[in-house]
Amino acid sequence: MRIALSTSFLLLFPLLASASQEVSCSLDQNGDEAVMSIRAEPDGLGGAWKEMGKFRVRALLAAPAGRRPWLLVEVYGHAADGDYRLLSSQKVSAPFATGRMEVVEPGLGRSLQYECREAK
103 is in which domain, residue-wise? Predict the structure, then answer.
């Protein structure tokens, strides 16, 4: 019984550790600044969304059970037809630091800068 409990705990430990992970992303679009806090999720379907002018940003910290977690940051630009188009996609593993990235909207030359790192 004791072995089974400790084995169960060891199997759950990576999931518990992943669940407490959090990433913070700073966004800047022409001086308009925002911060996104992203918590670990068990799959790659969710994530947090933020609209910044003509851009939409999706950030996801996926922490699937038994696999290494990853951070995905997608930037979409508002197109002339009213829809949004994917402009940039970046996937990084731990320590989840993206560096300062700049995404430029091709049609109008607007830019969005972002930087993500593990929250402390």
Answer: 2-118
Q: Predicted confidence band at 14 (pLDDT cuts at 50, 70, 90)? A: very low
CA angle 119, 46, 96 (to 5 degrees): 30
Amino acid at 76: Y
What burial letters (b/e) apply to 48-74, b meaning 16+ CB within 10 Å? bebebebbbbbbbbbbbeeeebbbbbb
pLDDT at residue number 60: 96
Longest dimension (CA), the chain: 65
Domain count, the chain: 1
32-64 tens-digit pLDDT = 999 999 999 998 888 999 999 889 999 999 999
